[in-house]
Design a protein that fits this description.
The structure holds three protein chains of three kinds.
Chain A: E1 12-19, H1 24-37, E2 42-47, E3 57-65, E4 80-83, H2 92-95, E5 103-107, E6 122-126, H3 128-134, E7 138-139, E8 142-143, H4 148-157, H5 162-172, H6 175-191, E9 193-195
Parallel strand pairs in A: 1-4, 4-5, 5-6
Antiparallel strand pairs in A: 1-3, 2-3, 6-9, 7-8
Chain B: E1 29-33, H1 39-43, H2 50-54, H3 78-82, E2 88-92
Antiparallel strand pairs in B: 1-2
Chain C: E1 13-15, H1 16-26, E2 31-34, H2 41-52, E3 59-62, H3 66-78, E4 83-87, H4 89-94, H5 96-104, E5 110-115, H6 129-132, E6 140-143, H7 147-164, E7 168-173, E8 181-183, H8 189-195, E9 222-223, E10 229-230, H9 233-262, E11 270-273, E12 280-285, H10 288-301, E13 306-311, E14 313-315, H11 319-325, E15 331-336, H12 346-355, E16 363-368, H13 378-394, E17 403-404
The chains are: A alpha/beta, B little secondary structure, C alpha/beta.
């Protein structure tokens, strides 16, 4: 380990919120892997642990840094919060700690203005559910929005490039699911609505 | 004020409504009862109630007619599975939006 | 955030469980016997997939308990197979009897312990009570700070175990490492083959040369039918302790050879971060040792000369090395993710034991942290050190019992 100080190099931190079965943890891992492929030395992706059941709220975290990451404790002040299920928005802990000027990205058919958030952060929304539903991206009866929402994430934050995300999916997903997932990402990217704080 | 005030010396909990939050939100399908098939309703006397017995979350009432507490029903489908009269069907919530959210 | 490209854009991230499984596969393990338990299950699930898919030429035996898992591994090891099992918490406890057995029988079994809290009450999250509870069994115990160290330690474990004939436990934090993905460089099979020669057992069951191993051995030495004076129980146990004491050389040499072949050196018993000029030393083990480095940075910013001793090899406990590393210290803050109830954190006791009789007169403070998966943040470690510094000003006596970072 080098003697570089970690005080002044903070990771870019993302917290993901979804319900069990929606793939929030996978989304966290895809972004971490994409960042690593882009050359970031430090990445981590971790699930948070609670009721392990379809439908129950789950969260995950991603950290990205140009240096090796030494922090293993939980994310407290994310730079971005991604919400795969809008019904989770009513829970305080979803946006808790989001940094000033950070991004809240929500899978919702509503415009960011309609979500009526009062906070020092930017808001992005995209109807990933509709995109995936139209594409028939359904697994065991559930519309799976975790890849689609990555399109909104990239559009809002530009922390990693679409190309890197696409590369991860092409290499890690089963062959017959690659195209549909890439389409979901691209389409969601296009329809993402951004609302920056004034 | 720390946790010592709860006065437990080992981990314990008593049955209480909502211990795990509003678990009704976890559903992706909900049970619908056909009252014409339900045995206690047809006979108008306490009988069967297997749905009440088997419900893992105790959200079904042992009453005529049966009532299901939708705030906590997780949609596991066990009631539909065990009903001998096939009076319960699970309906997908896919497009169902809880009031006040979207 | 600046997009600073610091390395070639390639490589995959792995979680700790997959890193361990890759290490086992590369080590060409021949027999795997395991029982699932959270958070270890993905290790053996992955291994069973490797075996099923023809990627690992091994026998995978699905046993009905962890006790059986280690019983199968010791039996297989006895007849010359390279073996592996993985477990956590109650699973490790369930095989407790066999842990003693494997060590006493001098079998080079390698076990991955994915550190998890012990019940009661039930808790599947991380702390180190499980492996710490087994520190008396005679196993070499190595703790990994991150997923790269997991895969590297598994490979080195076989080299070490098979050189000194002592089983090795590779421990890593459940969930914090086991389920967290981070960059891991997976060594090539070619290089691992160069590093790890085939296992040469000291036991073999051969009808042409019949032997009875680990038979009832009485208190006193006795002359056998061939006129040889054989060990009593105590002499055999002396040899186990001797093997552990002497294993330090093998561990360091294996770590050095590993470094030469793979570019990452493990020629140490613990990781040192800025100990050269430190008069305050934080001691931690596993992933906590990384968070401790962040804490040390914060303390250095505030003007304190803080270093981190990230303990890697817990057994054999590196007393001499610790003594040398702490010679300038006036305050040692030991963070334990475990506790020997009725006394204090295990690492703290062992640090004190290392310093006993030496001229070092450091104040030692023990903090119990992170039990049952309680999150431990760098700033909490900083606060604990600052608190200890205040106590230091008041008077140098060590407290009777450790402080806990919890919500009581």
């Amino acid at each position: 380990m080098t003697k570089t100080s970690y005080v002044n190099t903070r990771s870019y931190e993302i917290r993901w919120h979804g319900r069990g079965g929606q793939g929030a943890v996978t989304a966290a891992k895809i972004v971490a892997q994409a960042a690593y492929l882009e050359g970031y030395q430090g990445v981590t992706a971790a699930p948070s642990f609670g009721a392990e059941r379809r439908g129950a709220p789950v969260s995950a975290s991603t950290r990205i840094s140009p240096q090796t990451i030494m922090v293993v404790s939980q994310v407290e002040n994310p730079n971005a919060v991604v919400v795969l299920d809008h019904t989770l928005l009513k829970y305080e802990e979803v946006t808790s700690g989001l940094v000033k000027g950070g991004w809240l990205i929500v899978n919702s058919r509503r415009h960011p203005k309609e979500l009526d958030f009062k906070g020092d952060f930017n808001v992005a929304t995209a109807d990933a559910t509709r995109v995936c539903s139209n594409l028939r991206l359904i697994v065991a009866g559930l519309t799976v929005v975790n890849t689609a929402i990555l399109g909104a994430f990239v559009r809002a934050t530009n922390v990693v490039g679409l190309a890197s995300i696409e590369k991860v999916i092409s290499e890690r997903f089963p062959n017959n699911t690659i195209d549909i997932n890439l389409a979901a990402i691209a389409q969601t990217y296009e329809i993402t609505k951004l609302e920056k704080i004034r | 004020m720390g946790t010592r005030d709860c006065q437990h010396i080992c981990s314990e909990s008593s049955p209480a409504i909502g211990e795990a939050g509003t678990t009704g939100e976890w559903r992706d399908a909900f049970p619908v009862i056909d009252q014409e098939k339900c045995l206690p309703v047809r006979q108008n006397k306490p009988s069967c109630f297997l749905c009440w017995l088997y419900c893992p979350d105790a959200v079904i009432s042992r009453t005529i007619p049966i009532r299901i507490n939708m705030q906590y029903c997780k949609g596991c489908g066990i009631c539909a599975q065990v009903c001998p009269a096939c009076a319960i069907t699970m309906v997908n919530e896919e497009e169902f939006c809880p009031s006040g959210t979207d | 955030m600046s997009r600073k490209i610091t390395r070639k854009a390639s490589g995959w991230i792995l979680d700790g469980n997959h890193a361990a499984a890759q290490g086992v596969k590369l080590s060409r393990v021949q027999v795997i016997a395991a029982y699932p338990i959270t958070p270890q299950s993905p290790v053996t699930e992955t291994l069973s997939e490797f075996v099923e898919g023809g990627k690992l030429d091994a026998e995978y035996i699905a046993v009905e308990s962890e006790h059986s898992a280690l019983a199968v591994c010791t039996s297989a090891s006895m007849v010359g197979a390279r073996t592996f099992t993985a477990t956590s918490a109650h699973g490790l406890a369930y095989m407790h009897e066999m842990l003693h057995w494997a060590a006493g029988a001098r079998l080079p079994v390698v076990l991955a312990c994915v550190n998890r809290a012990m019940g009661a009450p039930w808790n599947v999250l991380n702390d180190q009570q499980d492996s710490i509870s087994q520190r008396d069994t005679g196993w070499i115990q190595i703790y990994a700070r991150n997923n790269q160290e997991i895969i590297d330690s598994v490979i080195q474990a076989y080299k070490i175990a098979e050189s000194v004939y002592v089983p090795v436990m590779v421990c890593y934090d459940g969930y914090v490492l086991s389920h967290t993905e981070m960059p891991v460089d997976v060594p090539s099979q070619e290089n691992v083959d160069r590093f790890l020669p085939p296992y040469k057992p000291h036991t073999i069951l051969d009808p042409a040369n019949p032997k009875n191993y680990n038979l009832v051995t009485l208190a006193n030495p006795r002359v056998n039918a061939e006129g040889v004076l054989c060990h009593g129980y105590m002499e055999l146990r002396y040899l186990l302790q001797e093997a552990l004491q002497n294993s330090r050389e093998t561990i360091i040499r294996a770590g050095q050879e590993f470094g030469e072949l793979f570019g990452r050196s493990y020629a140490n018993m613990f990781w040192e971060d800025r100990l050269d000029d430190a008069d305050i030393v934080i001691v931690a083990m596993g992933s906590l040792a990384m968070e401790a480095i962040v804490a040390a940075d914060m303390l250095r910013e505030a003007g304190h000369k803080v270093g981190v001793l990230g303990l890697r090899v817990f057994r054999p406990f590196p007393k001499a090395d610790v003594l040398k590393a702490l010679k300038k210290s006036r305050l040692v803050v030991v963070f334990d993710k475990n506790i020997s109830y009725g006394l204090e954190g295990a690492t703290c006791s062992e640090i004190k034991s290392a310093l006993y009789g030496s001229p070092i007169n450091a104040v030692i403070r023990n903090f119990i942290v992170g039990l049952g998966g309680r999150d431990v943040k760098a700033r909490e470690l900083v606060a604990a050190v600052n608190k200890s510094l205040s106590s230091l000003k008041e008077g140098g006596l060590t407290q009777e019992y450790p402080e806990w970072l919890c919500a009581i």
